[in-house]
Structures are given as C-alpha cells and as structure tokens.
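Researcher: Structure for this, please.
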Amino acid sequence: MSKNELIERDKLLDQLTKYRHLFDLTKDALNGEMARFNQIEQKATRMFAALTILISFSPVLVNWVVKVAIPPEGCLEYFIIILTVAVIIFTIISWRYLLGVLKTTSLYHIRIDDKMIQFFDNNSHLDIYYALARQIKDIYRKNLAITNKKCILLGHGYKFLIYNLICSVLLLALSILLYWFGSY
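Model: Predicted structure, token format:
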C-alpha cells in the first residue's frame, strides 16, 4: 500500500469511528427517552390506582358530611362542606390528568422493512451509521415531545393529588374538632 492509500484508509476509519460514535450516542439517547416514557407511565399507574381507591371512599365521605354538616350549624360545618367539595373536585381533576398520561400512546421507532434492508445492501458502513444516526435523532425528537407532554400531565395530576391530600388532612382535623366539641 502506498502512503496516500494508507492516509485515505486512516481518514475513512476515522470517519467510520466518528459516525459509529454518533450512532451510539443517538441510540443511547433514544433508549433513555424510552425508559423515561416507561417511568412516567409507571408513576401515573400507581397514582391512578391510589386515586381510584380515594374515589371509592367518596360516597362514604359524602354520606358522612350530609349526616354531620348539613344543615350547617357553625363555622366547622361550613369548613367541612367546603373541604369535602374541594377533595372531590381535586380528586376528579387529578384523576383526569392521570388518565391523560395513561392514554395509549405509541412511541416512534426505526422501521425495519425491505427498504431498510436494501439501504444496508447498497451503502457503506459510513453511510449507514450516518443515516441511522439522523433517523434516530428525528425519532428521539418526536418521542421527546410525546414524553414531555405526558410529564406535564403527570405533574398536574400530582399537584392536584397533593391538594387533595392537604384538604383530606384538614377535613380529618376538622372532623376530630367537630367530634371533640360534641356537635355530632
């Protein structure tokens, strides 16, 4: 091999290595985004299950409030009614946001079809790595948008779940006060 041929081969190997690294980086980013998507859905599933249990207690809560606080005789009863309504509203809002997270959504992926096989047959390693890296980058960007939307919905669902829990604790405290003062 001549010196020029060796230089050309080294340049080609450098480019091949460079685009292989680019391909690996984009593939790792895509895999990380898919893992993030799964984590968000798992968190939403757990929160949704907790909210479903809370919703099952709503009729008991409403029945108790009707017996104890209606008609309201004082400030405590008014606060109990307001907090009960807040708990129900926050539960429904949170449940709705989490349902949006759990809505069936498919992530994008690389299509393996005859066209892809033909592309592999007709191109060099360098071209294949570069084309795959570009395709993965585009898929990553689309999947990131899907996951970010789910993340925002999850954040809102979590926020209203916290509001629900705060109102529930206050409702429990007021119920204890009402019991302590002997109003029911």
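Researcher: Any notable elements?
Model: The mean pLDDT is 87. The two ends are 99 Å apart (CA to CA).
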